[in-house]
Design goal:
Largest sheet: none
Oligomer: single chain
Order of helices and strands: HHHHHHHHH
Strand content: under 5%
Number of strands: 0
Number of helices: 9
Distance between the termini: 31 Å
Radius of gyration: 21 Å
Helix content: over 70%
Shape: globular
Length: about 200
C-alpha cells in the first residue's frame, strides 16, 4: 500500500496547510460540535457552513476528487444512522437534518486530516494532554493500517487467482471468507506485536 494514501496532500503549501495544527483542531471541533448540537434547524446556517468548508477546500489546493472520494467512503455510515429516523413520525425531515449535519461534520474532519500530517495531529493531541492510551492507539492504528491493507490486497489476489466463477453470489461469499480470515490474521498479528513490544520494555500507561 502506498504510504501516501492517507497523507498524500497533507504537506502542500496552501494557506490552509500553513495554519497552526492546534488552531485547526480547535476550529474543526468547534464546527462539529456547533453543527451537531444546534437545537434548531437553520438551513441558512447549514448552507453557510457548507460554503465555508467548500471555500477552505478550494484554498487547500487539494484535488476535489480526492476529498469527494473520501467523503463518499464515509457517507454510508452517516446514511445508515440517519435512516433510523425514518421509522418515526415526521422521519423524513429528521432524516434530512441528520444526514446534512453528519455530512458537514464528516467534511470538516476530512478537510482537517487531509491538510495536516497525521504525525502532527498526534503531536498536537499529546500536547493537549489527551490520554496516552488513546493517542497510542491512534498511532498504532495509523502504523499498521498499511500492513493490514497490504495483507488484504495479497489475500484478494490469491482469491482471484483461484476463483473462476463470476456469479455475484459466489463473489460475496468469497469476500465474506476473506474478511473473516483477515480479522483472524489481524488479531493474531496484534497479539504478536503486543508480545514483542512488551518484551522490549513497553508499558501501557
Amino acid at each position: 500500500m502506498n504510504p501516501e494514501f492517507i497523507d498524500r496532500y497533507s504537506r502542500l503549501d496552501s494557506p490552509v496547510h500553513k495554519l497552526p495544527v492546534g488552531s485547526k483542531i480547535v476550529a474543526a471541533l468547534v464546527l462539529v460540535l456547533g453543527v451537531a448540537l444546534w437545537p434548531a434547524v437553520p438551513w441558512q446556517l447549514f448552507g453557510a457552513v457548507g460554503a465555508l468548508l467548500l471555500a477552505l477546500m478550494l484554498l487547500s489546493q487539494i484535488p476535489p476528487r480526492f476529498l469527494l472520494r473520501r467523503l463518499l467512503i464515509a457517507e454510508p455510515f452517516a446514511l445508515s444512522i440517519a435512516a433510523l429516523a425514518l421509522f418515526q413520525p415526521g422521519g423524513w425531515h429528521i432524516f434530512l437534518v441528520m444526514l446534512t449535519k453528519s455530512t458537514l461534520c464528516l467534511a470538516a474532519m476530512i478537510l482537517l486530516t487531509a491538510t495536516t500530517p497525521f504525525t502532527d495531529l498526534l503531536a498536537a493531541l499529546r500536547r493537549a494532554r489527551i490520554p496516552v492510551v488513546f493517542v497510542t492507539t491512534l498511532a498504532l492504528l495509523y502504523r499498521y493500517l498499511f500492513v493490514l491493507a497490504d495483507e488484504s490486497s495479497r489475500m484478494r489476489r490469491a482469491r482471484l487467482s483461484r476463483s473462476f466463477a463470476e456469479h455475484r453470489a459466489h463473489q460475496w461469499r468469497a469476500l465474506a471468507t476473506v474478511a473473516g480470515q483477515l480479522f483472524i490474521r489481524a488479531s493474531g498479528r496484534a497479539e504478536r506485536i503486543f508480545a514483542a513490544m512488551s518484551a522490549r520494555g513497553w508499558e501501557q500507561k
